[in-house]
Amino acid sequence: MRVVMFGYQTWGHRTLQALLESEHDVVLVVTHPKSEHAYEKIWSDSVADLAEEHGVPVLIRNRPDDDELFERLKEADPDIIVANNWRTWIPPRIFGLPRRGTLNVHDSLLPKYAGFSPLIWALINGEPEVGVTAHMMNDELDAGDIVRQEAVPVGPKDTATDLFHKTVDLIAPVTIGALDLIAAGQTEFTRQDRSQASFFHKRADEDSRIDWSWPAEDLERLVRAQSEPYPSAYTFHKGKRLDVLASFVSEGRYGGTPGRIFYREGDGVVIVAGADARTGRNHGLAITRVRTEDGRELPATEYFTSMGGYLTTRP
């Protein structure tokens, strides 16, 4: 099939690479300009550079809503558009233009975790698996019929970076597998159960801020979700920002006020956690490694020279 590809960052790069290595003909690529957004500088392999290396025409757009783009798409005469990590709304006159419609590739197990940063949100929420879904695009974001979907398990120590590497390897088989079904003439696919749908916003600095009223289990997953190269989970100690780089859920149960720097357990320093911590039934978050405001990384047992005091959500 003649394919136009809409995509950005490493997800789009992997999709384009898979298309270039397939039997399909990539006739045009549309991608976003480079961004200084903290999350968009991560996994930032260039879709434009890869297309140009293979002689594929490239258009750079923030939004695909201008007449010049529409005319270029009509001239390209695509059988299908394939999109992955396109960051803005694609209007119906665009996604409905190709003869076979538009296939969107999304890094979650739809209908759950539509929208942005699905791997990070899924890890924070304790999902047992994550994956990649290829679905037909319609008027509602990430809501069209599912053509192909594959899942991978979330391990007990997996970080968001680990899950990125697990799922990015699914892009090629999911995308090309879906295209093969469409090229073979299949038009009936699996409808999404919209009662199970959830939609998440982009991550921002506020979303990495530690709230000590959360249970320790949730905070431990937040720390893993905000692993390098993502911005770290953070708290405040004596008015200064403190990044939490590694942690575990304590074996012991610790009662008191959330945020209290309480006890050394193994190679960690336990912080009281949970809105109901006063009951003494909660595990704490044992921090093992931190980074100070001036960039020093060190074990928590070296940073916290004595117990007592509090970690706070704000300075």
From TrEMBL:
Keywords from UniProt, A to Z, are:
Transferase
Domain (Formyl transferase C-terminal) spans 205-306
State the source organism's domain of life: Bacteria
The protein's matches in InterPro entries, at most eight in alphabetical order, are given as: Formyl_trans_C (IPR005793), Formyl_transf_N (IPR002376), Formyl_transf_N_sf (IPR036477), Formyl_transferase-like_C_sf (IPR011034)
Task: Indicate the segments forming the Formyl transferase N-terminal domain, all copies.
Answer: 1-169
What is an example of a GO molecular function annotated in this UniProt entry? methionyl-tRNA formyltransferase activity
Q: What is this protein called?
A: Methionyl-tRNA formyltransferase
- The source organism is Streptomyces iakyrus
